[in-house]
Design brief:
single chain, TSUP/Inactive_protease-like, membrane, mainly alpha, 10 helices, TM_pro_TauE-like, Probable membrane transporter protein, cell membrane
Length: 263
């Protein structure tokens, strides 16, 4: 089905939707792309690798827009990426060696962890809005916590085909004192290099399906442009509620898939 115009159109729509979420929430879109690709019958490790193509292109698109608007802190993005590229290689190496069932169950666990991190992010955002004006940003870069966040994001990116922003954003708010919008933008910038690193290793393992990945990426480019433009003016409440519903549904699907594969 992926080799037909209908399949390409579905992938473009999927990429556009995840690109919007990427720009709004600072995620690479892989949380949705990977389970969706498995519905097409693609093995999980190939879905993981292929989603990184879309993750890369959508993060480039969103970051270029943020850069042109003068809203991207490259110092933090580069530091996060500098550590994340190493563990992205490790994650991709592990993904090629884990059984499909185990990786499916682990992905379901990641989706549930994401729900908690989104709630943490909301609490931090409310605390920030009371403690300081929304336009105040931390000027100094704290190397050790930034390194830890980058290392974790890289591992998740290579292992699960996600950008890592869904983990980076609340951790940046918690440990680096960034505002939510600053964290979204810097994490999206870091995702570019991290996704490249994971793709290099997955390409060596011959796991990347380039045409489906490029279809996802093209849709992601369009969607990320819209998402980053909406970020300064759109309330996240409705988007977050919808995204939470998707995460619960996808977690159930991946868990069932994992137990089915194990049986």
């Amino acid at each position: 089905m992926l080799e037909t115009p209908l399949g390409w159109g579905l992938l473009l729509l999927l990429g556009s939707f995840t690109g919007v979420l990427s720009g709004l929430l600072g995620i690479g879109g892989g949380l949705l792309m990977v389970p969706a690709l498995t519905l097409f019958g693609i093995p999980l490790v190939q879905a993981t690798a292929t989603s990184l193509v879309g993750v890369l292109l959508s993060s480039v698109s969103g970051s270029l827009r943020n850069l042109s608007a003068g809203e991207l802190n490259w110092r933090v993005s580069l530091l996060l990426a500098g550590f994340g590229i190493f563990t992205a290689q490790l994650g991709a190496w592990l993904a090629d060696r884990l059984p499909d069932a185990g990786q499916s169950l682990a992905f379901a666990g990641l989706l549930l962890l994401t729900l908690y991190l989104m709630q943490l992010r909301q609490r931090l955002q409310k605390t920030q809005s009371v403690a300081c004006p929304a336009n105040v940003q931390t000027q100094s870069v704290r190397v050790l916590p930034t390194a830890g966040i980058g290392l974790l994001a890289g591992l998740l990116s290579g292992l699960f085909g996600v950008g890592g922003g869904v983990v980076m954003v609340p951790l940046q708010m918690l440990f680096l004192g960034e505002t939510v919008k600053a964290a979204v933008r810097t994490s999206l910038g870091a995702i570019m290099a991290i996704a490249v690193s994971g793709l290099v290793q997955h390409t060596r393992n011959d796991n990347v399906l380039w045409i489906p990945g490029l279809c996802l990426g093209l849709g992601g480019v369009l969607g990320a442009q819209l998402g980053t433009r909406l970020l300064p003016r759109l309330s996240e409440r409705l988007v977050t509620q919808l995204f939470r519903s998707f995460l619960i549904g996808l977690a159930v699907y991946m868990a069932v898939r994992g137990f089915t594969q194990a049986g």
